[in-house]
Model the fold of this input.
Amino acid sequence: MTVLRISNLSISFQGNPVLRNINATLSAGSRTGIVGPNGCGKTTLLKAIVGSAGRDVHLREASYPDSHRKD
Done:
């Protein structure tokens, strides 16, 4: 069962692209790590997923099935 799907996520700051066309599908029960060198966009990606990355985020699709959403 898919708990998070991201399609075509692109982020830019002051017109400079930071992340381009990120796609991911996370399944229930799976473990996923985000690794990379300092400054490569790990935190920016997580902020985009939770909706706090700012106005330069262009996310075509992010879906969270209602059965896993905690309000």
